[in-house]
Amino acid sequence: MSRRWRVALLALPLAIAALAGLAWLALNAWLESSGGRRAIEQVLSGQIGYPVSLAGEFEVVLLPSPGVSGTALRVYDTANDAVLVAGGSYAVALALRPLLRRELHVDRLTLGEVRFGAEDAADAGFLIPEFEVTGFEPERPAAFRLDLGPFGEAAGDFTWRAAAGGVDLNLDWGGFLFPRLSLDVRAAYDAAGLWLEAIDARVDGQAVRGTGCYRFDDESGLQLDLNAGRLDLDALDLALPDTGAGPEGAGPPVRLRLSAEEIVRDGVTARGAVLNLGEDPDCRRPGG
Question: Is this structure's pTM higher than 0.85?
Answer without folding.
Answer: no
